[in-house]
Design goal:
The protein is mostly helical. The protein has a single domain, classed as Homeodomain-like (Arc Repressor Mutant, subunit A). It is 79% helix and 0% strand. The protein contains eight helices and no strands. Helix 5 crosses helix 7. The radius of gyration is 18 Å and the shape is elongated. The two termini are 17 Å apart.
Amino acid sequence: MNDLQSDATLESSNRSVHYLLAALLSLLTSQVSTISHTDKPPENRGSQIEQAFRVLLQRHFKTWKQPAQYAAELAITVAHLNDTVKGLTGYSVSSHIQQRSMLEAKRLLYTTSLSVKEISYQVGYEEPVYFGKLFRKTTGLTPLAFRKQFRD
């Protein structure tokens, strides 16, 4: 193998490691955030709502895709949940749900040989075409392009 091929292979490997570490750090951050917030009482009601939402999201992101499901569990309106979460994090409830689902999809694309259709079902999307469009919208790549770029 010549030097150019070696450099390209090394660069591809470095990128893959970088993205895997970024995904791992994101997962760890959400876990640490959950742990650190449960050790001390939140300062106000908004923080309590946001933290409870994060716990529910971690447990139910594969099956609960609608903000109304989280709001109902928290016994508040969807508008109040969204206003609170967006005010504290800068992102809507729907955005958090999508981002968590896409993070899991990236993990599965990288670590398994499941088809895109199977991954779509695994992360809670019954329409693989919709899943593919959402994945591309949030990551800039199709699921297969993501797998090819970061696994090969």
